Amino acid sequence: MNSNKTLYTIIVHSENIAGILNQITAVFTRRQINIESLNVSASSIKGVHKYTITCWTTPDVIDKVVTQIEKKIDVIQAHYFTDKEIFQREVAMYKVATPEFQANPEASKVIRRYSAHIVEVNPTFSIVEMVGMSDDITSLYQELKQLNCVLQFVRSGRIAVSTSCFERVNEYLAHREERYQNQKD
């Protein structure tokens, strides 16, 4: 990893239009920036989707990337944040072999230490779920792997909200609606 690069989280709000994800990821491809994680979901606003994207880059490049994304016709707004400016989490599931897991008393201690939860148990496998920071999710995986009980591992992309008291897109949409109403009158 280049020492002058920072992990940025980009939050994009767009209309719910087919093909917009491809347009957004093309901005990264053209600049040869690897997307570390990507999460897409409906937002709290009807008809608006939220994209949470992470990548390692420099301050000048991230500014250009977000500017290019905002130029896309169906994008409402895009902003970038450092880890200090957001509250973020990931979700992970660990499928572990039940016999090996139960035979090792250290396994349940590891689960408790990471505040993870067992959400399914059957004679063949158990599912452990964890919500947390990326590094903790990776650390739990490494510890369970050392106990020789991991069958499968999956994690979500990052989800994030800004630490600001308001969501910028709500303010933007309210202002846009007000301008539209004024033009109509």
TrEMBL record:
Q: Which residues form the ACT domain?
A: 9-83
Pfam families, sorted = ACT_AHAS_ss (PF22629), ALS_ss_C (PF10369)
Class of this enzyme: transferase
What is the reaction catalyzed?
A: 2 pyruvate + H(+) = (2S)-2-acetolactate + CO2
Query: Which key words tag this protein in UniProt?
Result: Amino-acid biosynthesis, Branched-chain amino acid biosynthesis, Transferase
Among InterPro entries, the record links this protein to:
Acetalactate_synth_ssu (IPR004789), Acetolactate_synth/TF_NikR_C (IPR027271), Acetolactate_synth_ssu_C (IPR019455), ACT-like_dom_sf (IPR045865), ACT_dom (IPR002912), AHAS_ACT (IPR039557), AHAS_small-like_ACT (IPR054480)
For this chain's UniProt record, which GO biological process terms are given? isoleucine biosynthetic process; L-valine biosynthetic process
One GO CC term, this protein? cytosol
GO molecular function terms here? acetolactate synthase activity; acetolactate synthase regulator activity
Which CDD domains does the annotation name? ACT_AHAS
UniProt signal peptide: none
Pathway assignment reads:
Amino-acid biosynthesis; L-isoleucine biosynthesis; L-isoleucine from 2-oxobutanoate: step 1/4; Amino-acid biosynthesis; L-valine biosynthesis; L-valine from pyruvate: step 1/4
| EC annotation from Swiss-Prot or TrEMBL | 2.2.1.6
Q: Does the keyword Amino-acid biosynthesis apply?
A: yes
Q: What is the recorded function of this protein according to its Swiss-Prot or TrEMBL entry? A: Catalyzes the conversion of 2 pyruvate molecules into acetolactate in the first common step of the biosynthetic pathway of the branched-amino acids such as leucine, isoleucine, and valine.
NCBIfam families attached to this UniProt entry? acolac_sm (TIGR00119)
Describe the family membership recorded for this protein in Swiss-Prot or TrEMBL.
Belongs to the acetolactate synthase small subunit family.
Q: What assembly does the database describe for this protein?
A: Dimer of large and small chains.
Protein's name in the database: Acetolactate synthase small subunit
Source organism of the structure: Phocaeicola plebeius
